Amino acid sequence: MSENVDPTLAARAADPSTSGAELQQLAGYHPELRPAIALNPAAYPDLLNWLGALGDADVDAALASRRAAEEAAATGGMAGAADETQVLDVGLEGTTVLPVSGGGYGVPAGPVYQGVPSGVPVGATGGGAPGAGVPPAAWGPPAGAMPAYPPYGVPAQNKSNTGLIVGMIVLGLILLGMLGGILLLLTSKDKNDGDAAGQGGPQTTQTSETPSETKSETQSPTPTPTRSTQEPGDEESEGPDRVVRAPAPSGAYSLDEFRTVSGATACIAADDYVSCTVQQFNAGAFSCNPSQELGQVYYSRSEDELYIGCAGRPETDTDTVLGYGEASEYDGFACTAADSGTTCWDTYSGKGFFISKQGAYGVNR
Question: With 0-12 CB in 10 A as exposed, 13-18 as middle and 19+ as buried, what is 257?
């Protein structure tokens, strides 16, 4: 393994369970990991096309090896080709490739979104939102600098949670129905017994004391996030324009604010906007004054605009942590956290942003 390769990042680049979103960020910011990513079965077609268009000899060799393994698995021309592991020496020792289905890797099929170049001074604009004085940024990273974002549904391993969650919800509804039927029967029996006791002769009225209810102790809120029970596509529409186009990943936590594992990035979601700040940032990437300590990116749903600028304090001081590879959702906004950075977007329009210590730019899912 090359001395310049971070072992942890190299392991993530070669791990088939790494999400497509994280592979995208690793490919964009760590060129030395691209051969391993080209061999990773979790790499999605647009990412492979982007890698194939780079003209990198090591990447091309990895793609050729991957393509050969796929053809051998499809035709059955090599005994056991579908089960064996192939190793390619591209500067990342121990990197493996598993046969997967797919075609060739050439020029990406879709457009690459144009983003905000780091360190470019920006003019003034109105709006009064955090980051005011910065015009709306173009959607997407600089042309050719980053691969297209993976389509929703990657990674595939999260899909298995959907059936389990649906089954648990159905089971809960059945149990509630049974409990309601039992309570109805008991109530009806007590009423009939009371009517029978009221027939024939005077009755002595007796008063009975009801036990006083004890107050439950108020529990202090904890920073541990809770899973959202809302499945992708189940969000309620609030009008003809409120159709969910880019839902939160399955199993997302219901959070309106969080910090990342490193503690450098803090994000908050509200009724109309989602915003993140980052510490230890590259001042040139956010065009900030030396006295300003935080970079900030802010997307407004009502204004449909993205602001990239600076802030004097973190967006939130919450202790709730969103782990790498996890997701959150709140009021139509969703976020995912990765070691390479944080991505947030509006689930109705698909527009949002990516932010890291190196800078920020707009995304459109």
Answer: middle
Angle at 274 between CA 22 and CA 290, to 5 degrees: 85
CA dihedral defined by 26, 29, 35, 39, rounded to 10 degrees? Answer: 20
DSSP-assigned beta bridge partners for residue 316: none
Please name the residues in contact with 202: beta carbons below 8 A apart, sequence gap of 6 or more. none
- Give the per-residue pLDDT at 110: 40
Model confidence at 242, pLDDT cuts 50, 70, 90, reads confident
How far apart (Å, rounded) are the C-alpha atoms in residues 153 and 169? 22
105 contacts 49 by C-beta, under 8 angstroms: yes
Question: Quick check: 41 pLDDT over 50?
Answer: yes
Residue 343 region by backbone torsions, left for phi larger than 0, else alpha for psi between -120 and 50, else beta: beta
Structure confidence by residue, pLDDT tens digits, 48-85:
999 999 999 999 999 999 999 988 888 875 545 444 44
What is the percentage of the chain residues whose pLDDT exceeds 90?
43
Cβ(30)–Cβ(59) under 8 Å? no
Which structure tokens are listed for 33? 């990991």
The 10 Å CB-count burial string (b at 16+, else e) for 35-61 is bbbbbbbbbbbbbbbbbbbbebebbbb
